[in-house]
Amino acid sequence: MKKRNNYNVMLAMFIALIIVQTTVPIIGNIPFGPLSITIIPITVIVSAILMGPKFGGIVGFTWGFITFIRAYWWPTSPLAAIVLVNPVISIIPRTLIGIVIGFLYLKLKKKYNSKILLSAMGILGSLINTVIFLSLIYVFYSNQSFQLYHIDSSSMLPFLLGVAGTNGVIEMIVSGLVVPFVVKPLQKIVK
Questions:
Q1: Known Pfam families for this protein (predicted)?
Q2: Exposed/middle/buried for 54, CB within 10 Å: 0-12, 13-18, 19+?
């Protein structure tokens, strides 16, 4: 019962953090030159590692749902108002981060070095978001590429791969470095 109460408190804390990261400028997306590095997956990854796939999925769903609502109410870009109004694109990749990382961490935590595993979970969580998010954009919007990105349809895939190769790689590196430093101290408190 006490563990469940602790998880509910942590869940509320992670959801509050997601709300702040998605609504306060520069807290969830850090401008880095021409890029915008999304660090919100780190919150989902940490919640999944600490609380498992169910709660990690809930935190990821919260991020996706807020993204979906914001696409109508307060879009972060003209593109968000077109692409993120699709709940498959705005919700599913973010929810899958929590579920997949939660399950994988539970299965692998006894077999592998903790810091290396945590770093790998950070990288994988960010990769899940980037690959699924950009793949879904391609599936749903490749024939609308000119309206979205002012590029012809044949250039859509190279464009999205360029986004993955810049933003995606930087986000994976940041997640791989930050997740172990956040999770290790929290694991001592949660136990």
A1: ECF_trnsprt
A2: middle
